[in-house]
Amino acid sequence: QVQLVESGGGLVQAGESLGLSCAASGSIFSINTMAWYRQAPGKQRELVVTIASGGQTNYAESVKGRFTISRDNAKNTVYLQMSSLKPEDTAVYYCNAFLQTTRWGLSRSYWGQGTQVTVSS
After folding, report:
1. Contact 78, 5 (CB under 8 A)
2. N or C terminus of the chain with fewer C-beta within 10 Å?
3. Pairing state between β 46-51 and 3-7
C-alpha cells in the first residue's frame, strides 16, 4: 500500500517558524513532482509550492521568501519549512506527490491526510 503521511503541524505564534514533513511509503518505484497545498477555512484549496524531481521549485507569491520546500529522495520525503508565519497562513496543509509504483506503470497523484497549521496573532 502506498501512502503519504504528514507530520509537523501545530499551533505557533505569528513570526515563528514551523516545519512540515511528508513521507511516502509502500511500494514506490519513483517519485516525481511533489507539492504542498493548503486550505483555509471557507477558502478553496490553493497550491503553495511545487518541487520537481530535478529540484525545480515554484512558489505561490504569498509565501515567497518565507517558505522553503525541499526533498530527500533517499527518504521519500518532502519538507516545507515555514518562517515568519502570519495568521493568514492558518490552514490545513496537504502534501501531494506523483508516484510511480512499478517500472512500467503510470505516475499517479497521491495525497496526504492533511495537517493543521494554526498561527495566532
Report:
1. no
2. N
3. unpaired
**Please, are residues 60 and 48 in contact by the beta-carbon 8 Å criterion?**
yes
Query: Which DSSP category does 40 fall into?
Result: -
10 Å CB burial of residue 8 (0-12, 13-18, 19+) is middle
Beta strand 107-111 with 91-100 is: antiparallel
Provide the 8-state DSSP code for 106. Answer: P
- Phi, psi torsion values for 94, nearest 5 degrees: -120, 135
3-class SS at 121? coil
The amino acid that residue 21 corresponds to is: S
What pLDDT, in 10s, does the model give residues 15-42?
A: 999 999 999 999 999 999 999 999 999 9
Q: What is the pLDDT of residue 95?
A: 97
